Amino acid sequence: MARPGVDVPVARRVWRGLRWYLHGLTGESRYEAYLDHERRAHPDRTPLSRAEFWRGVHADQDRNPQGRCC
Amino acid sequence: MSNDAAPAATTERELPPVAAGPGRGWTPQKIALWAAIALLGGVAWTMLAIVRGETVNAIWFVFAAACTYLIGYRFYAQVIERYVVRPDDTRATPAEHLANGKDYVATDRRVLFGHHFAAIAGAGPLVGPVLAAQMGYLPGTLWIIVGVVLAGAVQDYLVLFFSMRRGGRSLGQMAREELGRIGGAAAIVATLLIMVIITAILALVVVNALGESPWGVFSVAMTVPIALFMGAYLRWLRPGRITEVSLIGFVLLMAAIIGGGVIADTAWGAELFTLDRTTIAWGIIIYGFVAAVLPVWVLLAPRDYLSTFMKIGVILALALAIVVVRPEISVPAFSEFASGETGPVWPGALFPFLFVTIACGALSGFHALISSGTTPKMLEKERQTRFIGYGGMLMESFVAIMALVAAISIDRGIYFAMNASAGATGGTVEGAVAFVNGLGLTGVNLTPEMLTSTAEAVGEESIVSRTGGAPTLALGLAQVMQSFIGGPALMSFWYHFAIMFEALFILTAVDAGTRVARFMLQDTLGNLAPRFRDTSWLPGAWLCTAIMVAAWGAVLLMGVTDPLGGINTLFPLFGIANQLLAAIALAVVLAIVAQRRTFRWLWIPALPLAFVAVVTITASFQKIFSPVPAVGYWAQHASYRDALAAGQTSLGSADTVEEMQAVVRNTAIQGTLSIVFVVLAIVVIIAALVVVARALRGAQLTDHEDARVPSRRFAPAGLVPTREERELQRQWDALPADQQPSRGH
């Protein structure tokens, strides 16, 4: 959730915004989203590590293939 | 932008409203702005369609497209939103009420727009418009821009919304639920066949671009080790660091392109990497099998990251280059081939074949599979479907317009020399010059020097009969880009950059398409032998992958070795298949709209459905029944069969008995596929009409929507928040962190 803040210099905000967008676009921030979800919905259990999470994502993709457009 | 669907509403007392009310309506500034947009668009269309001087500047294409899109999005999409879709922002989306931190994740609309766009845009919008340029620029431009506003974006928007209301269900599942068993089964068979055809023809585009091109073969082959490296990096070195590995991959890709130029110049490099098209086709078939049975993290996922980066980067660069360079276009609005059916690039009359040649960019049925895939599970608010679904498709259309501009910015003589089949040009510079100058095109005077110097400039042995659209687009893109960055010295770099860029998407599509088709086949076989349902059962997975690869591989090899030119005869099938899928998607949508009892607005999905039904059915009928051999598969079949029976040993561009037999075989397969497609299309459309008729008669129909769950979060609907949305956002931002909704990205 690295959203651009308010009281920060412009260059820094642009850099943060760019980083935020690229991480979102590539899907890198999916892990942070997962952590956030776990913290809210299942505070009782230990969340997966980053590596475990991505292994799970790829295993899911193996089981549910999605087409790419032509 | 106003919205009458949902008044400002609160679901919980302690939370601010979750939906913005109607906007402030029209102000003088807004009226002036939209009048200016309309005026600029009108001027641009006048320049393109009516003034038609000796040349027309490419900037008018950009203005005509952008202004029409803005008006379509602001007005037509709003009508659809208000009367057909009727989104309700007080209702939670699947991403909110099914949130699981994995696939159901509410995602910022701007990020999701990028995701969705990267998933829908591939090689299709880059290839179709290039081939359609044989008719002149105006028919293609009109269809791309008008088609997207009234058909393509409508389909994407409605499928996305209805899939979202059904928990992100797939098109196949929706077809089964809404159209009944027969309609649903036809839709699934059609999807499977379409996967095979589309994979084969995309692969054929790559084969044609890489044949006899050591530079291209080397740089595209290097994408495999680069992807393997990225996969290993993400698996073991730095798991999940996708942005950094994408940047590393991008640098390596650039190195592979530059390295390809160096290696193609060496004697051993040229010898090792100059491959004929049949060898490359076998290479892709083997690659397709291996890539589809490997786990996704090895090749598919890293390749996806690379192509997302390349896609968005190149498209932005090309748009910027066209605006800065503003090339003058000397292609006529309507060419000599617009009124006939014997064009050298693809046969058939403007109606219906222009509308199947350009599928992606105007109306693409394949998008219905994406819009009912991951995107609906990531939407944060219902009203964002308009921005993501309708807006995303407008962006793809803009890509198609830019591809068209790039293709028509090259010399027409060169265009026809590159796109006429080897049967027509003989594959030689002299043959191409004689053929193109013999076409009698006004203003075209091709010389051998033009062909040899262009080939040299892009670092290729020859550019004659480099069919399939990709090389033509690459040449156009290289010409535009070199006048923007680098000058003539970088021409060959940009050319191979474009080839690599297209090959990257296509190889990903081949891999992913094989996987999807394999799962569909396993699911179908599971009805006979339940063991096949278990997709982790390796013998079943390998067998089904092999069957699907054999299916598209056979079509690919047929296209590569076809004496009549391959892509020319097969491309119409690709377009027909894609538009058939659009007809299925629109039929499902029509049935849903009828069941929601919004009869007054039924014409909104009915209009594109009627059009695409007429186009696919007419095109299929012509492919089946036309007596003109160049157009009708069976007419061609009969003429070659009769010639063989009469003891002839050559006919047209087939020089031997074996080649003639190949034509007889190929046309029989193509003709049979045409029959299957048209029958499936008719079945699905009838199934939809039956549902509509039952709804009109007032029959009580089952509602397949998920139950309503109240929303507890807020986000703006469009790209730019309205004043009221900004105010609401401030209220939400003021909440303590633990009460803020979780937003993934």
Name the structural class of chain B: mainly alpha
Biggest protein-protein contact in the assembly: A-B, 42 and 66 residues
Q: Average the pLDDT over all residues of chain B and give the rounded result.
A: 92
Give the helix/strand class of chain A: mainly alpha
Which radius of gyration of chain B do the C-alpha atoms yield? Answer: 26 Å
Mean pLDDT of chain A: 87
Secondary-structure element order of chain A, N to C = HHH
The count of DSSP E runs of length 2 or more, i.e. the number of strands of chain A, is 0
Shape summary of chain B: globular
Largest sheet, strands/sense/barrel of chain A: none
Number of strands of chain B: 2
For the termini of chain A, the CA-CA separation is 33 Å
Helical residues, percent of chain A: 55-70%
The side-by-side strand order for the widest beta sheet of chain B comes to 1-2
Gyration radius of chain A, to the nearest Å?
A: 16 Å
Give keywords.
heterodimer, A: 70 residues, mainly alpha, flat, B: 745 residues, 2 strands, 1% strand, disordered N terminus
Question: In summary, what is this structure?
Answer:
With 70 residues, chain A is an all-alpha fold. Helices cover 61% and strands 0% of the residues of chain A. Chain A is built from 3 helices and no strands.
